[in-house]
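[job 0412] stage=fold_complex status=start
inputs:
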Amino acid sequence: MSVKQTIVVIGNGMVGQHFLANLVESAMKEQYEIITFCEEPRAAYDRVHLSAFFTGTTAQELSLVEDGFFEQHGITIHLGDKAVSIDRAAKTVTSAKGLTIAYDKLVLATGSYPFVPPVPGHDRAQCLVYRTIEDLEAIAAAAKTGKVGTVVGGGLLGLEAAKALMDLGLETHVVEFAPRLMAVQLDDAGGAMLRLKIENLGVTVHTGKNTSVITDGEQCVNKMCFADGEELETDIVLFSAGIRPRDDLARACGLEVGQRGGIVIDNQCRTSDENIYAIGECALWNGMIYGLVAPGYTMARTVVADLAGNDASFTGADMSTKLKLMGVDVASIGDAHAKTQGAMVYSYQNGDSEIYKRLVVSQDKKQLLGAVLVGDASGYSTLLQYCLNGIELPENPDALILPHRSDESVGLGPDALPASAQICSCYDVTKGAICSAIEGGCMTMGALKAETKAATGCGGCSALLKSVLDSELSKQGFEVNTDICEHFAYTRQDLHNLIRVEEIKTFADLLHKHGKGQGCEICKPTVGNILASQWNEHILEKDHLGLQDTNDTYLANMQKDGTYSVVPRITGGEISPDMLIALGQVGKKYKLYTKITGGQRVDLFGARVDQLPHIWKELIAAGFESGHAYGKSLRTVKSCVGSTWCRYGVDDSVGLAIELENRYKGLRSPHKIKFAVSGCTRECAEAQGKDVGVIATENGWNLYVCGNGGMKPRHADLFATGLDKATLIKYIDRFLSFYVYTADRLQRTSVWMENMEGGLDYLKSVVIEDKLGLCDQLEQQMQYVIDTYQCEWKTAIEDEAKLKRFRHFINSDQPDDNIVFVEERGQIRPADDNERKHFKLMEIA
Amino acid sequence: MAKWIDVCSIDDLQPNSGVCALLEGEQVAIFWMPVLSGAKGPDAKIYAVGNYDPFGNANVLSRGLIGDIGGQPVVASPLYKQHYNLQTGVCLEDETVKIPVYAIRIDNGSVQVDLSSLPQDGAQAL
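[job 0412] stage=fold_complex status=done
writing structure:
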């Protein structure tokens, strides 16, 4: 029997967690007992998107650890317990709470701490840092009483922190020691352009400022005094002046550390002790500390490979970055400062559009060495590929940054990239990996993202990913055919446009003008669906009757034996005892099998087609209306009981759910749509698993979109926060209309959004910022559908013509003798084949 | 010898959809496809096939959607979506499966079916 070795990981930050996740996915998992220490009270979370905490994202949403991860993989985590010493001779780690654990291998992932300049007064009240969720909570608390906030440090993190202060509603200043913003990544002109743009957003920037003391303010809590004699009154001082590696543990146990800090590692991330590794921001490789997450992840993977005895090495990382700082696109690639000998520079500056671009190329003008982009970073992917893959530049390199005013294309085609080219840097996905996924059958952006994870991190590479996909598909001889079927050479969106613009009201008319043949079970329901979304006529009208699937045609859901189930609408899941009794009486009278659905309503099974109108006459008389469970349409708006009864409820979730369900009921859409409303962040209605989810917070309603359960569950994305009801409804109107208008047939909102170029950000720009100028039209269309709502069953039972098909035989009143029920647990169920044979024999005898 | 049974009036049919008739104990699905104005494709047709879906084991074919695929008139099962050629009864997804096909006509506004025209294995429906 082999005895497991013990591996101890100190630190459960982003990199520590990435190491654990990779370790348990490898074969090494079986060989090690895994133990980790986490100083913070919560396991790893996303520090890159920390500022989202101030716009409503919760600590739980920032978590990088899937529920049950540690339990499932047998990892012991000591939360809130800090490792305080390492005994290399005994090979043990001791913690603050007094645990001593023996290790065979030790991984240091202790990260970094924010550098606070030793200015007198730096430890005064409301002088804070920006790294952990606890830090953020302290900032939020200070912002409640303060009016002015100042960030010390105009680098990448400093500007992120400034955004956080803006989001908290503070008058915001940025103080930078260097003469420009983002001194590491940008040149003077780029820094100046960034400053201009950020000042236009209302942030005051002070560069070349050396803080000499922080003291009592007169209007504010603090006053910063600068070496040049100027002063700045501020309530909050937020230090974001760089990071320092946390190497104290390593230092104390005698591991080699760098002169200016950092645990020295080799290409396998081993420290000076062969049993101890260091990864992430605490590690010093070749004199460099990497303060980005991607190199840390690479180090983590390197250690897993090294433990497994595989060849792997960390040989540095590209520090190119692209990000949106307060809505301003900024990117820096390679040697942005033209330090390489003989380097030449091209630059383009547009004061009107506030764009600055700079290219650094080699002496022979063949290689791209670096670039700076401010205000427009759309060329980032192309330039990065030139730089990383040593692709030869075009004859006039400046064409890459000059605006395109003619048809000439200067983009780098995906074919020019080698298979080793990294397309997605967040998940380290190469062009080669993408191509093999495409060969393996991933034909859409959605499938490709799910398979390779490319473009699922920052999303910056999605346009490039799309062009690789298109190029590979056409190379494989796929004509990317988006025709809906053989009868129409159009996509669903094309058909919707034709129907809307030409005001086409019937399938026959559309087929006559734009199609051929008789139609089929693909195009008929699709067109029926679009006609219903657009004109909202009853689906059993003569012109529409043959279009819908059988469920729609019979306004009920067909089951395996040809009988139907009936689902009346129970808005928000709220139902009175009298209504419940009425429902029970109908179920009893028609001997229906009764089950509660996941959408908080009641499903009645086993109704023969001829019984449906009778059942509905009684349900309508009792006050019910159609639940549209049979349609590609709004199904339910699930709700928790909310503030009316719940001790924790923040707002009236049931009331809102009922209002939303009544607003959108009957809307036909590319696929079914589900909603939920939760009355507080405990989220009992599971709104984050729905196409549209709403959660009450003390600041208003938070809106989530594009989630779903089912075969491929997907968590919804936070779309907007702190909304009042009118704005919430406006956004949902626009969102649903845009979905109905542009999605493919049978495409849920999640896949629709994932396949959209630009994804969630694009969707926000259309729905919130009205980028396409479509919002009026989207709202009007929704209002039309709402105004023309009818209960399809009420209309049907009042019109003999519509009931004509609700009999099994056209020439007899007999029921279908193939429908046989047996009893189970006191209710009916369809007989199986054997039972049916037996039953028939008994009948004959 | 053809033996035409009166089923119903043409007014009882629904254009471009199906109904089911009970004829001498057999369930017969009847589909009426009037030519859609101006569309190219098979002529206006009326079809009669068995109502039993051999994959789903239920009497449901009359409730399927009809149309044409590659020029063949078809019904798609409402249960699991297999297509059946309305002229031959052959399943497009599995040619070894075949549903009964009957002769049908409209005589003076009356819809008539000939059950004796049920083709034997291998025989082509008329």
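[job 0412] summary: Residues 406-410 of chain A have pLDDT under 50 and may be disordered.
[job 0412] exit 0
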